[in-house]
Design goal:
mainly beta; eight-stranded antiparallel β-sheet; 3 helices; 8 strands; globular; DNA repair; Putative 3-methyladenine DNA glycosylase
């Protein structure tokens, strides 16, 4: 059921970000398994993308993870408080990544509720990248972990959304990326309450 490692080597990060909708993201922490259906993503197109941490070939301790071969986790701290989980894609030294912005709780819902201190019936439990990561217990210790391993992985459960049920909009909170801020590289499942705002098309 785990995605084939080759899946992540796709060099078209935009297509991959869309295809990840409906896939199921799992974590196993202290023998406790939690999982959620991916319902919102954003694509970051490596060195050519002004919104990407790796724009212009920037290499720092933080961004080095992005330059690895696709199929590993890239987790960074945003605003000094939120851990954000990204799927590194494409081949080595081509630093593409997909930010997971929202998940619909599926497995270990009681654990997810405990981590977020709210009922799973509230969309806010896992809408938005910081909330999604927290719901699944993802912190920076997951950075560089293999997505085909035993601690964090993605499965294909055959959940597919029709083209008309998927929205493609500009990414969120990247005004600094100038004209690249307008690219429709954020994808989400229309009408799903676990999608972050703005959740209208």
């Amino acid at each position: 059921m785990k995605l084939n490692p080759e899946y992540y080597l796709n060099e078209d990060v935009v297509a991959l970000a869309k295809d990840l909708l409906g896939k199921v993201l799992y974590t196993k922490i202290d023998n406790e398994i939690t999982a959620g259906i991916i319902v919102e993503t954003e694509a970051y197109f490596g060195i050519k993308d002004k919104a990407s941490h790796a724009y212009g070939g920037r290499r720092t301790n933080r961004t080095e993870t992005m330059y690895g071969s696709g199929g590993i986790a890239y987790v960074y701290l945003c605003y000094g408080m939120h851990n954000l989980f990204n799927v590194v894609t494409s081949v080595e030294n081509d630093p593409h990544a997909v930010l997971i912005r929202g998940i619909e709780p599926l497995v270990g819902i009681d654990i997810i509720e405990e981590r977020r201190n709210m009922p799973y019936t509230k969309g806010a439990i896992s809408a938005g990248p910081g909330s999604a990561a927290k719901a699944l217990g993802i912190d920076r210790t997951f950075n560089t972990k293999n997505l085909a391993g035993e601690e964090i992985w993605i499965e294909d459960h055959g959940i597919q959304y029709k083209e008309e049920d998927i929205a493609a909009t500009p990414r969120v909170g990247i005004a600094y990326a100038k004209e690249h801020a307008l690219l429709p590289w954020r994808f989400f499942v229309k009408g799903n309450k676990y999608v972050s705002k703005p959740n209208k098309v």
